[in-house]
Amino acid sequence: MSSETTSVTNGVAEALRRVQERITAAASGCGRPPPELVAVSKTKPVELLLEAYEAGQRSFGENYVQEIVAKSPQLPSDIKWHFIGGLQSNKAKVLAGVPNLYMVESVDRQKTATALNKAFAAVGRAEKLKVMVQVNTSGEESKSGCQPGETAQLAKFVDTECDNLELVGLMTIGAFDTSDEPEAFKILATERDAVAEVVERAASTLTLSMGMSADFEAAIRMGSDSVRVGSTIFGAREYPPK
């Protein structure tokens, strides 16, 4: 291990502890239980993930199929892997082959849901794969996600047509917003209400995954059940893998 990696590694556990303290404080301030923390480990070496694991972290998020496939065999089997990146339908089979894949948060169209449903059926697991519908709350072309107003239709498709998938909620990567109540989070909460109506479930049973390193405390105040924090724990993101 290089001296640079060693230096960063020694700080991961402490950075994780500080993030957990901030999550607890934000949740306590609005009378809510702390949300789940997904440590986003994209582009980071296995050594850094292991440091977070040894500090008690169990949920990790990856953006690239090739990374989650490469890292998962090198790390403990009780890790809950969340796939949070854009997913091409032709890679669904490869992703479904990760033994401890826990959730795909980035289902943004019926084609992706169908491919995942078929792929997960082929691996023959007893439990359904948990999925979230990703919503593009900012309207930015650079961000994935279905458009607000289309969320309920996609969610209903997952819920009724994909026997091997379990719809658990909605996810967004909102535009950077320093306000106390970012618009992206308001939109996602509204979309959840629409989804709850069409799938005939209480809105409170649908998880909201929103908030990252720059805005996870605001997300918690606005009702997020899961926050995805990467650079604040592991350091600045490196270049995408080839």
From TrEMBL:
Belongs to the pyridoxal phosphate-binding protein YggS/PROSC family. Its cofactor is pyridoxal 5'-phosphate. The modification N6-(pyridoxal phosphate)lysine is found at K42. Pfam families: Ala_racemase_N. This is Pyridoxal phosphate homeostasis protein. It comes from the Eukaryota. Gene3D superfamilies: Alanine racemase (3.20.20.10). Keywords: Pyridoxal phosphate. It comes from Chondrus crispus (Carrageen Irish moss). Residues 16-237 form the Alanine racemase N-terminal domain. Coiled coil: none annotated. PROSITE patterns: UPF0001 (PS01211). Pyridoxal 5'-phosphate (PLP)-binding protein, which may be involved in intracellular homeostatic regulation of pyridoxal 5'-phosphate (PLP), the active form of vitamin B6.
